Fold each of these.
Amino acid sequence: DLTSCSLTYCTYCAKNHQGKEDDSDVSCRKRKVLHLVSQWTSLYKDWLHEDEHLKQFLKTIYRNVLDDVYEYPILEKDLKEFQKILGMHRRHTVDEYSPHRKNKTFFHQFSVKENWLQHRGTMNETEEIFCRVYITEHSYVSVKAQVSTSAQEILKIVAEKIQYPEEELALVTVTFSGEKHELQPNDLAISKSFESSSRMFVYRKDLTDTLNPFAENEELQQRSVRILGINTWDLALELTNFDWSLFNAIHEQELIYFTFSRQGSAENTENLSLLLQRCNEVQLWVATEILLCSQLCKRVQLVKKFIKIAAHCKAQRNLNSFFAIVMGLNTASVSRLSQTWEKIPGKFKKLFTELESLTDPSLNHKAYRDAFKKMKSPKIPFMPLLLKDVTFIHEGNKTFLDNLVNFEKLHMIADTVRSLRHCRNNQFGNEVPSKEHHELKPYVHHLHVIDNQQALFELSHRIEPRV
């Protein structure tokens, strides 16, 4: 009950009056209290979810231990046990509580309650990640696969994506020193590339050379543009379903880790990093698809297609892919294609201008913010802008003022982070794309992109040389 909580807290915080206790006695008393609270929490954890006062008590005890662990290092072991019971994944060290590192450690204390609201597990063999399989030095296929996926499965995905016979290809890891190692069909490709800190490449079977799908030849001229045969609403819907699965997996605290701890925090921002990577790859994918299309009439169709997909993403309240597609169409190597843009019908140009206006950065992205605010949940925000907001609050305001916590700053950050919760109030419906496009999911899940601006410009000047 509350009386017991108060007595326990007072016992923990009792001062050393008139020198009657030495440091060892104080630390022993604090350890006993922490041990008691840990046992009690472990026994009644499920019930504690229902009581705000008890959660506040645990939060207060936890913060006091964080303050004391630097003065009494012996508490560190007990603190780790307490963190395990509370479901906290961060492992603190004594050095982190040095007064010189207050700013870095403050966000670990953000809220015990938040850790109970959402659980973020560690990555295992069944979880999916993005891995890059390079076709050339500057282009790759982004493959969403489980860590336990075999080399044969990945090779099949890539071969289908680049429209090349699988039996003529080999999957190879290449170290930074240039050493090659061919992966066998049953090898765990992703694990192998991580172990050797190398890149995965697709080579010709004899390992003499990588492929060059961008060479100026008849094969490129006849390259089928699969996207033109896919319904635009279905494609946008699959993009939205994919983005939602990434967005819905983001733990609210990932935004805090990303902002407060820019270095060495990759393991704490895995899901957020995936969505940011996806946004960047969709932008590159738009430019890649257009610039690999050497036939003018098909290129015009492609631009129209992407404008419609962007409009559908907006209608489906997926602002992350919406921004990525519009930015892809505005990439310098695409926007310079005057022959292509001249042939775009007026109604499509007008639609694109309207869509562009939402990405206008003036007045702190007012157009986007107003439109997004009016959209009902569920909805997917443009994550880079949300991160910019949190970073702006963090860097523009001190965390400590005269050795006191600047709670006004923390309230502003908390309000911004909680906007994720509002976006995810409801789940997206179970609407699925038309069944006739059975290849739609792998097409959207595994994007073929060129990630080098120079290579994109070379393709751009090849299909429409400078006059």
Amino acid sequence: MIRTRFAPSPTGKLHVGGARTALFNYLFTKHHDGINVLRIEDTDKNRSTKESEKKLIKQLKWMGLDWDEGPDIGGPYGPYRQSERTELYKEYAEKLVEMDAAYYCYCTDEELEEKREKAKKEGKPPIYDGHCRNLTDEQIEKYKDEGRKPVIRFKVDKNKKYSFSDNIHGNIEIEEGGVGDFVLLRSDGLPVYNFAVVIDDHLMKITHVLRGDDHLYNTLRQVMIYDTFGWERPNFAHLSMILAPDKSKLSKRAGVKNTYVKEFKEDGYLTEALINFLALLGWSPDGEREILSKEEMIQEFTLDRVSPSAAVFDVKKLKWMNGKYIRNIDDKKYYELIRPFVDEYYYYENEMKFKKAADLIRDSIDTLSDSKEELKGILKNKDGEYDLEYSKKIREKFDEYNGKEIIEEFLKLLKKRDEKYIDLREVYKELQNRVDAGGKALFRSLRIPVLGKEHGFDMVELFSSIEREEIIRRCENFIC
């Protein structure tokens, strides 16, 4: 049976790169009816807390992802937090020492820095020189007497060329002598990443490792450990980087507003839209389709359709996709999702008023947070006022359309009526008979005093969403 794992460090925020890795693991595992494991890599005590772990899990669940084993639900191969597995790492590191495949290294940080500087000056790669590989008993006792606490280093066979096959990038190899003896266990007893993941993946019977391609060359160190123990290597698939639109590293510095899942949620992106978009960053389904349900993605997801080329994070495409999902969900879910965004800034007297306003803007928004701007002039703010602004440019446009004459006639018609909300279609017919103006001038002259802009919502829906008395008030104030 296929077994995969997503193994994040719980720093509290889930980056979109990590989110895509979690998604690809989920889709691949579900496609093969396998087991997906959530493992928390929390050996960095300064950055990892239980609270940040809870936040991470909450964000994964918001994305609609689940797992079959993990720290929150348990499983047969736990514990699922690295901080609770330290004795295992110590046990296997000491086994390697017994096998003469690793050794205790007593070099201090200062000595290691000197070695690196010397190697640089000599034009050599700054790799460990193996000083502690063959210490005598006397040297070891001397270091112990000095109070030095050793690390455990892996003995790299410098005469061997190491390689592995990657499901996305093909064969990856490193020349003889390209890697120095690397640390397995630090002096405080905590494992380094490359050692811990091998022990965990082996003991948890992980068959496929899907992760970012920034780990490609880490994997060469890991296969050394697998081979030394005589363990079967898992299948590796390293996912390409996600780049900003300018092809630089994805970051706020590159002009990308949101880079964490929590930020997309807060900005009003729908779960379905975000996972649809992330799935297409490096993977492509059969055909030209871009809108896919989670079920369709599970059915079609295979590694042979994952590209080794870097994917570009196209924010415009994500917004377009999110807008599609907003317009396609059922009304009940739409009202439920947009209500918190409306409630944050606006006041409405009753449910009908809320639904009228939400319906009015639905075709105009790409994210739920767009409602803040789109509802100006439609609903009152928390102070009971309408947020309306009329720029100098918009007033000049109004004058170009000879708008004052149109509005004066429009007001006469409105004041003859007594309904709370008007049917613009009826009033418009009468207005056409009273003024000498084309449709463009008429519509824009009506819209500008009411909303402060030339373009926007369907006029009939707009005028049926604002009370007649309020429309009269705005028009009178605008032309006075």
Amino acid sequence: MARSRFRGCASQQLVGVVGLEVHAQINSNTKLFSGSPVRFSAPPNSLVSFFDASLPGTLPMLNRRCVEAAVMTGLALNCTINKKSYFDRKHYFYADLPAGYQITQQRKPIAVDGVLTYSYFGEKKRSQMIRKSVQIKQIQLEQDSGKSLHDDDRSQTLIDLNRAEGQLRVDANVSVHRPGEPLGIRTEVKNINSIRYLARAIDYEIQRQIDAVQSGRAVQNETRAYDSKSGFMPEPNLPALIVYEDNASLPTGIDPSQAVVVQKIKDRLPELPGVKRDRLVQTYGILPEHSFTLVNEDGLMEYFETLMKTTQREPRKVIGWVTNELLGHLKQRDMSVSQSPISPAHLAELLKLQETGRISSSAAKQVFQEMWRSGGKTAWQIVQEQELGLVHDSAQLHSICQKVVDSHPDEVSALNSKKVLNKLIGLVQKETKGRADPVLVKEILQQMTQ
């Protein structure tokens, strides 16, 4: 299990200081210190090795995949990777830990001193993106305890040593102080399993402590953390954990496929969300808020970039179709991007018809709706079937414009007004069901009234 800690603060006379200890399960096929498989919702105690049950004489076997995952997490969070780290025993006595201790990394964990940079939009100006960063104190590998299952009907607590799989848990350490003064006494809120509840718990605890300090009451240290001086000792059954910077640093005789090599893991590190957003803004010139939408919706960024490879339209004109039309339809039907009946290639064809003046913008939206419903017809097929193409015939448009002008003499007398001209253009579009070339219609109307 990887664990990270970071701190941040608010800006008031009395400010809150928050340290989060985040417990996250590593995505691996077997457990951290045994060969027992990891499988969600398996029957209780069905995935328990002799070591998991703490039978005498059993020894831990470190899972290399978990070490690599911890190193990758450290790299993603800009941490320093310790080439040599150590395991410790954290002693406490509870039924969910039959050995009486938990294997963790207290003295020298695998990664330290990282920074997480994040972005958000200003409350008053949505287009203003604000960047902030929080410190990552450390990332450590830690054995998970068992899961306590409480049977209230029988007044019993049962233990599942499959381990507490599939959960993200957070412990929040909260204190308040005045800037420039020593940190206040902290309290710990444990085992929070929801981001929403975490925010509520922190807000509540900060306000509770501010009220206590302002009324002259003392804040009690209610943390249930263990004192490292008395609760920890070096783990005697595990040697130092060694990772290597690159293949050149491997000692003679070490099989590279069996070693944890930082450079190899760094090469596999995927493009991180912040890097993706910056690249989208710089490459396509789209707004920061659009980059957030593309990255946050699974598969939407890939859809947009595939579309951009097959269309000549400006990215800022394309992005609206992706984030408004496409995503809007997907959200209404609770569908994922991969389930979209309109492929990037088919949407590119529709955009080309609009860009080249074959259809109007309103007709393009009609075609999009029909493409969604038909689930296979191309944009051009729909345009032909429903006669949605723009009318470019000058003689035909001249006749329609003359009819509109003759039936609206009052408007024609005030045609120097842009508002009136737009009204006449709208009347022509109504006659043609939105198919008239707006540029040509404007020219004809202006010529008729000069």
